[in-house]
């Protein structure tokens, strides 16, 4: 495959972001600020020529992708490919619940209060497994289930025969996914206590062997 640079943009702010609700496979509309987030990212990336674009099949990601590409006159032949492989982590029966409440429920059996305490004692990866354990339906994605799906998204890009070395690819991503990528590939170089901002850009170098982080949460 080609060696390409991925520009991962966190979708614009949504109402569930404002309400502090878990929003994985569930969805809520972009706010006025969320539209501004997307348009701002579009302005910052307007001079980047994208050879392809991908996003999850949630409307918040699709709308963000559309606004970024609309501002980019160098990529006017590119249409985003939507796929469930690029969705955020699935939170199972906790979808749409208050974020602080859920992470307290997840951490309490282990003597921990909240996501930060779980992440500090264990990891973001372990937090996924603990959520699956705490979910009464056990539908929340485990760490292995999550990465099996996300890796299929990267393989979708790797298998794009139209991409050439040094091409740029736009990917609309999600907050916890970006944190998870930094934990897995960031080699401890990035502050994971700071959530990526809506509309921020994270850059990865992707080839057939590995993923290398070039930049995180750039605004």
From TrEMBL:
InterPro entries xrefs: His_Pase_superF_clade-1, His_PPase_superfam, Phosphoglycerate_Mutase
Annotated keywords: Hydrolase
Transmembrane segments: none
Pfam (any one): His_Phos_1
Superkingdom classification of source: Bacteria
Protein name, per record: Phosphoglycerate mutase
Organism from which the protein derives: Furfurilactobacillus curtus
